[in-house]
Specification:
It is built from 30 helices and 35 strands. By secondary structure, the chain is α+β, with helices and mostly antiparallel strands. Residues 727-858 form the GGDEF domain.
Length: 858
């Protein structure tokens, strides 16, 4: 059964549907369909392929014309075809209805005589002329045109394009009109609504922003612009977070906006964070937010409303800070404080009150303050004293005992004040309490101390004397009588001037006391009753009355005759010490052991260090000591371990030269102060000789590598360390290939040069902790601490390659050589370094047997 052939109308509808499917969001539908119509018109005007023509050659064109006619008549959009003079030739029914033209069929068939556009649609003719259509190459245009009709105003979106040539018709224009009245009215209503909203938003005092889904500013009110210092155009289209939020808060705010807009969290009703004004000032804003959605509930933006709370926040923070300060003071106050109600009930208590009464705040709150008093009588006394002070407008101050939780009674100083409101009403009472148990105890102690002072006065060894301003003795202690050999009755009433041996001392004492008001450590000579003289050291001061006027003199003194003699003897001994110190050829320093300051230096020290003695007396040991603190401690530890009485350190001379010295030090008392006396010997040459001897004993004389004994000594330590701490350790044995032939061909001197060159090259490639030694002849070994077998093989290959490329110049000859190597590692069963070397040696000879110049793992 054959398929039914589709009619031209069906094929045209199918083509329209296919074309409509290609209409995308954002395309202009009028322009889209106008283009489609032009394509159909052009298609109908051109002859088709021969296969589509009928016997008369025109059936295909007729078919296309039929399709176009069907589409033209069925369009609800008004379409007019104009000639080049802007006269209407053809209109579809929708256009006839719009222009009010009669004889619709004639207009649709094109049988109507052309009518100037200004007669049918004068509202369209003016705008087209204004667009310059047909002038200066303008062949198409698009514009919106309003039309006033009986039922109101309508708006059309007009698309005009140049029409192709048609049979029996000149070129003209196709005009398509799309009714956009509803859209324009909607836009007007929306604009009016936006104007009303904008006016309202500009009137309110809050800042208002609307943001799109990307966080850009869509709308901002005048309040926000004024408060932030921006013009509206500076904010519109800008990222709200980037332009207003300070950098530290940007990430958090942007994340919050994203989570709210994406629906991952509930939108926040209120949040406070700062913004930055155009001038760079920071303002604290309290924000309210609301997500803006489509009718389908999809979020498209956000509405933000902000109130400036900067000043409010400052006030709140200031009040909070003040409240915190007051509360902290209340809590930290050392005195107990009770806040009482007007009815004398405890409202609050600070920690000091809790400690004083041995009760918690919870126990105290709500309790009558009478419970803290000793009894009802004491409480009545408390109320009476407080009331009397309050009536006089004063604070009540009195001493009244209280009791602790367990009934212990203690003396207390109390201060009671009223808390008044702004209206003068009594809000409460502040009761500040100070426990004066210590003061009472001190008063009792003072009485006891007076008795104690009397005993001290009578028993001290120093003389004590009080005189009037004229020098008449008013009081003396027993020690004064013993020192001067007078009875108390012989001294009291006597003038002190008779006790001075020299008149000049008496005058000087009086003048100094009057000038300074007090003197200390004044040495004078006094006369005893029998006429003998003693040297005394006196301290004295004037006694002043309440007005600060001197009324008497008092002082103490002691007999220092024996001390003066001892100091004389000490000075003689110091002279002897000074002569020994300065004339000794040994280097000597006297230092302060605490500050390490150089107190003195003898001439031998000045000659050795290169500094004048006066300069050395201003120096510190750190200026000549070249060792660091850790090195000094290490040397002190070695000295103790070795039982030495000296330290070996390095000193720096004035010219910068370093010298090794032995320092013998010991404590000495000089003028009552402990000093450190040091004798110093220069041992630089001796230490250099010792180091040379040590080097000769441990180093191979020819190559400079460790000798066999030193290599085995150091290697044994490394093997034991590796086994103790389970560390990797690799050993390499190397031997020069055909070394005998080098000696036979070039001589033993050439062989020595080869050995030196090998040693220098190997040493340059090894690390500081690696051990390299010559075991004998042309045989060498290397110990690599903390190195695995694989790394050891890599080191050996590097050594082999380097040595193979080494050229030794011997006279006019150039000698090259290769080496064979065996590499092994320390195993758990190894006890000595010899066992490890034996395995490396076996691997070495295996390398020899395999052809030499290679590395073999053992």
């Amino acid at each position: 059964m054959k398929n039914r052939r589709t009619t031209p109308e069906e094929r045209l509808r199918k083509r329209v549907r296919e074309h409509a499917a290609r209409l995308r969001d954002g395309d202009d539908p009028v322009e889209f369909w106008a283009t489609f119509c032009e394509a159909l018109l052009a298609e109908s005007a051109e002859p088709g392929p021969a296969a589509m023509r009928g016997a008369d050659g025109g059936s295909a064109a007729s078919l296309r014309a039929s399709r176009l006619n069907t589409l033209f008549l069925s369009l609800r959009t008004p379409v007019l075809l104009l000639d080049a003079d802007f006269a209407v030739e053809v209109m579809n029914p929708a256009a006839c209805e719009l222009t009010g033209a009669a004889d619709v069929e004639a207009w649709c068939r094109g049988d109507h005589a052309p009518v100037p556009l200004k007669e049918l649609a004068p509202w369209l003719e003016g705008p087209l002329e204004a667009e310059g259509l047909g002038v200066e190459g303008v062949e198409a245009c698009r514009l919106d045109v309003p039309v006033v009709q009986r039922h109101g105003e309508r708006h059309f979106s007009v698309a005009v394009s140049l029409a192709a040539d048609f049979p029996d018709r000149r070129t003209g224009y196709a005009v398509v009109l799309d009714d956009i009245t509803d859209r324009v009215e909607g836009e007007r209503e929306l604009a009016g609504e936006r104007n009303r909203v904008a006016h309202y938003l500009d009137v309110i005092g809050a800042m208002v922003f609307t943001l799109d889904a990307a966080g850009r500013v869509d709308m901002v009110n005048r309040t926000a612009c004024r408060m932030l210092g921006y013009a509206e155009e500076e904010l519109l289209g800008r990222d709200w977070v980037d332009i207003l939020v300070p950098p530290p808060q940007r990430d958090a705010i942007r994340d919050c906006l994203y989570l709210v807009l994406s629906g991952q969290v509930e939108e926040e009703d209120e949040r406070s964070f700062p913004v930055t004004t155009r001038e760079g000032f920071r303002r604290m804003i309290q924000w309210q937010s609301q997500v803006l959605t489509t009718e389908g509930g999809l979020p498209v933006g956000m509405l933000l409303s902000g109130t400036d709370i900067t000043e409010q926040r400052v006030i709140e923070e200031t009040l909070a800070e003040k409240e915190l300060w007051l509360r902290s003071s209340f809590v930290a106050l050392g005195e107990a404080v009770l806040i009482l109600t007007p009815e004398m009930t405890i409202l609050d208590a600070n920690p000091a009150a809790e400690a004083m009464f041995e009760r918690s705040q919870a126990d105290l709150q709500g309790e009558p303050v009478s419970g803290l008093h000793v009894n009802a009588g004491h409480y009545e006394d408390f109320l009476a004293r407080s009331k009397a002070a309050f009536e006089a407008g004063e604070r009540a101050l009195f001493e009244l005992p209280l009791k602790r939780r367990k009934g212990e009674i203690f003396p207390a100083d109390q201060s009671v004040s009223l808390i008044k409101g702004d209206d003068g009403a009594t809000l409460g009472v502040v009761n500040v309490i100070r426990d004066i148990s210590d003061r009472k105890y001190a008063e009792a102690e003072l009485k006891r101390s007076e008795e104690k002072f009397r005993r001290i006065f009578e028993t001290i060894e120093e003389g004590y004397m009080v005189t009037d301003l004229e020098g008449t003795v008013l009081m003396v202690n027993p020690a004064t009588c013993r020192l001067l050999q007078f009875e108390e009755s012989e001294l009291v009433g006597r003038n002190i001037d008779t006790l001075y041996r020299q008149v000049s001392e008496r005058v000087g004492f009086r003048e100094a006391l009057q000038a300074k008001g007090a003197i200390r450590g004044l040495q004078m000579t006094a006369r005893r009753k029998d006429g003998t003289a003693i040297v005394i050291e006196a301290n004295a001061h004037q006694v002043l009355n309440n007005q600060g006027e001197p009324v008497a003199m008092e002082g103490t003194f002691r007999d220092i005759t024996r001390r003066i003699e001892a100091e004389r003897v000490l000075r003689e001994s110091e002279k002897q010490y000074r002569a020994f110190f300065e004339n000794n050829h040994a280097i000597m320093l006297l230092t302060d052991p605490k500050s390490e300051r150089i107190i003195d230096a003898n001439p031998a020290a000045a000659d050795f260090y290169g500094y004048p003695i006066e300069v050395m007396r201003t120096m510190n040991l750190s200026q000549i000591n070249a060792l660091g603190r850790d090195e000094m401690f290490s040397e002190m530890r070695r000295s103790m371990d070795e039982g030495r009485t000296y330290f070996i350190v390095r000193h720096r001379l004035a010219g910068g030269e370093l010298r090794d010295v032995e320092v013998y030090s010991g404590p000495i008392m000089v003028q009552g102060a402990q000093r450190l006396y040091s004798v110093i010997h220069d041992v630089t040459k001796r230490i250099e000789l010792e180091q040379e001897m040590k080097l000769l004993a441990t180093t191979d004389a020819l190559t400079g590598a460790s000798n066999r004994h030193q290599f085995f000594s150091l290697g044994g330590v490394e093997v034991q360390r590796a086994k103790r701490y389970d560390l990797p350790l690799a050993v390499i044995m190397l031997d020069i290939d055909y070394f005998k032939s080098i000696n036979d061909t070039y001589g033993h001197a050439a062989g020595d040069q080869v050995l030196k060159a090998l040693s220098g090259a190997v040493s340059s490639l090894l690390r500081a902790p690696d051990i390299f030694g010559r075991l004998g002849g042309e045989e060498f070994a290397v110990i690599l601490p903390q190195t695995g077998i694989d790394e050891g093989v890599e080191v050996a290959e590097r050594l082999r390659s380097t040595l193979a490329g080494l050229a030794v110049e011997v006279g006019e000859d150039t000698v090259t050589f290769t080496v064979s190597m065996g590499v092994t590692r320390v195993s758990p069963g190894d006890k000595t370094v010899e066992e490890v070397l034996n395995r490396a040696d076996e691997a070495l000879y295996k390398a020899k047997r395999m052809g030499r110049n290679r590395v073999v793992r053992g």
